[in-house]
Amino acid sequence: MSKDHLVIFTPSGKRGHFPTGTPVLTAARQLGVDLDSVCGGRGICSKCQITPSYGEFSKHGVTVAPDALTPWNAVEARYDDKRGLKKGRRLGCQATVQGDVVIDVPAESQVHKQVVRKRAEVRDIIMNPSTRLYYVEVAEPDMHDPSGDLERLTAALRRDWDLPHLEADLGVLTTLQAALRKGEWKVTVAIHLGDAVFSPRIISIWPGFYEGTIYGLAIDLGSTTIAGHLCDLQTGEVIASCGMMNPQIRFGEDLMSRVSYGMMNPTGAAEMTTAVRDGMNALFDQITGEAEIDRQLIVDAVFVCNPVMHHLFLGIDAYELGQAPFALATSDAISLRASELDLNLHPAARIYLLPCIAGHVGADAAAVALSEAPDKSEDLVLIVDVGTNAEILLGNREKVLACSSPTGPAFEGAQITNGQRAAPGAIEHVQIDPVTKLPRFQVIGSDLWSDEDGFDAAIAQTGISGICGSGIIEVIAEMRMAGILDGPGLIGSAEQTGSPNCFPDGRTHSYLLFDGTAHGGPKIAVTNTDVRQIQMAKAALYSGARLLMDKFGVDKVDRVVLAGAFGAHISPKHAMVLGMIPDVPLDKVTSAGNAAGTGARIALLNTDARREIETLVHKIHKVETAIEPRFQEHFVNASAIPNAVEPFPILNSIVHLPNAKFNSGGDRQGRRSRRARTG
Amino acid sequence: MSKDHLVIFTPSGKRGHFPTGTPVLTAARQLGVDLDSVCGGRGICSKCQITPSYGEFSKHGVTVAPDALTPWNAVEARYDDKRGLKKGRRLGCQATVQGDVVIDVPAESQVHKQVVRKRAEVRDIIMNPSTRLYYVEVAEPDMHDPSGDLERLTAALRRDWDLPHLEADLGVLTTLQAALRKGEWKVTVAIHLGDAVFSPRIISIWPGFYEGTIYGLAIDLGSTTIAGHLCDLQTGEVIASCGMMNPQIRFGEDLMSRVSYGMMNPTGAAEMTTAVRDGMNALFDQITGEAEIDRQLIVDAVFVCNPVMHHLFLGIDAYELGQAPFALATSDAISLRASELDLNLHPAARIYLLPCIAGHVGADAAAVALSEAPDKSEDLVLIVDVGTNAEILLGNREKVLACSSPTGPAFEGAQITNGQRAAPGAIEHVQIDPVTKLPRFQVIGSDLWSDEDGFDAAIAQTGISGICGSGIIEVIAEMRMAGILDGPGLIGSAEQTGSPNCFPDGRTHSYLLFDGTAHGGPKIAVTNTDVRQIQMAKAALYSGARLLMDKFGVDKVDRVVLAGAFGAHISPKHAMVLGMIPDVPLDKVTSAGNAAGTGARIALLNTDARREIETLVHKIHKVETAIEPRFQEHFVNASAIPNAVEPFPILNSIVHLPNAKFNSGGDRQGRRSRRARTG
Question: What positions does the domain 2Fe-2S ferredoxin-type occupy (chains A, B) (predicted)?
Answer without folding.
Answer: 5-109
